[in-house]
């Protein structure tokens, strides 16, 4: 018998059951092999008197004994598996688990025998506490560990953080990669962007579902995952870990896992914020609820602010808070009200500030809300409101009958203070960027070109972050026709994008994404110079080189062949041409 055969009989000897080795020995040491085989069959066959007469009947039909025993065995195993599952649900708790523990004790020695393994695994799966010794044996054997149910693995993981970390780590990597793939996707659209999927849809993602299943109702494992996410967020500053923190909690909320939801102090806050994210707006009722949670943080429990700040640092939360802020500012213009007189607006800023301060808070372990700068409220926001007023004024002027002095030009300068705020104040920068996204979405070319120069230098280079560039490229598709104009392209590409391409590969990629989408709108001469300016270097990543190749191929297809150019008859009437759809 080879090693495979040995595995088939693993553990039988310990139970005093004869196996292949015993038969081999019997046959080697006997004088009458046939008699020995018959005796072995009688001793080890199914001991049912009524069966003895029926077996020869099967022989007549040419059914091998192996096939018969196998089918009996399979049938019995199914019955046993059903019985184990039933025992796990019946009688008093102590009694049912005592039965299962006894069964495990008897059967565990056969755990490596492939045909019996499912039964042993099933018994372990239904035991809330598998004996330590058995868990250690399973953990030490790679194949057994792989074969055991997630219920058993949870018991192993909760005392082996490193092993659990090895299981979770590839999932977290996959999650971050999926997020980055969406941000760099070649499909550029104002309707379907990074923030389009609803929270409920996002929670159905593979990684969130797998983690939810791995955690089950185990608070210890949930805490471990949160610890991993905090550590990775600190190490990388990658905000997608904050999204996963919120998604995981809400996924357990969907399944009504009260064992975990009731002990996570962020549960109700996250639940309320989740509803706002779904609506992409913080309404007054929910705003009061969220404020209640923040004001309710008691002395001695300030550490919860670290968790709340991580929930608020989720880009989906920031997006909702920033969009709500822009909407509030527009309403205030209509009401002739100043920002400092709007409690709702102040609450949005407070939450933005807490979210943006998450990394510093978790890093320093100083749990108190960041101080809001008065100038943000008294100077910066009124300045944004004045931009809104400028637009209204300009639009009204355009409609008035023009007098001798000619039309009033659109204001082209920006206050120095605006540029300074974007460079030095994180919250101002975030709100400023969202205001620019807002005017782009409104196809307000004048306002866009006026404010664009302020984006070249921003706080922590936020204007060159993937999320902002992903949204900006989407919104710019609405200004597609402007790309034919030299002035517009020079401001956008030379004045903004190209200032960072050489030092930031992500910006380089986003520009190529945009051009792949809008190249047919750009004037040929400009397109050619952009193609040269955007040549990848030797150090460029594969994704960037691939994008540049795709662009070059598209531009190659657009060039008319030399023959076409020279053959156009000069004096005759032009032939009617069939319009071709603009190639993308």
From TrEMBL:
Biological process terms in GO annotation: negative regulation of transcription elongation by RNA polymerase II
Coiled coil: none
Pfam family, one: COBRA1
InterPro entries: COBRA1
Gene Ontology terms: cellular component: NELF complex
Region (Disordered): 554-584
Protein name: NELFB factor
